[in-house]
Predict the structure.
Amino acid sequence: MPLILPVKGVLPVFGENCYIAPNATVVGDVITGDDCSIWFNAVIRGDVNSIRIGNKVNIQDGAVVHCTYQKTKTIIGNNVSIGHNAIVHGCTVHDNVLIGMGAIVMDNAEIGNYSIIAAGAVVPEGVKVEAGSIYAGVPAKKIKDVPEELISGEINRIAGNYLMYSSWFKEGEKK
């Protein structure tokens, strides 16, 4: 069973049709929307500030979502994929975003709609990623605009696939 714990009397709240992997950890002031999935070894720590997660968000294996005590909350929009081992910390991620595997997004960064943060990229504190951009590197810099085919071919495809994958595990739980 997932580790779901209250912090200072505040228990995480999950929307409808969510999947939380058996070894995921979700604690404190965390609220998710509907159709979300939190995968194996992912950690979402709403212990020092609040975390708000929209609809159709997948937080993949080993990812960490956290915030900073009395300073930064984490807000994640709708239709967002957070790749394996990514760190999303005290920032705002708008709708229709892909954060690649092993990427790091730091405090007070803001990721615009329809953006892609490349695998391994580090978005430093306070950086504003323009909507519709691909950022890569350490530190992350804009490399180009997101072509239309990547919106459907990557951003929407991955979010849709994770909704499908989570259904496989929910079917197994019913047996």
Summary: The mean pLDDT is 96.
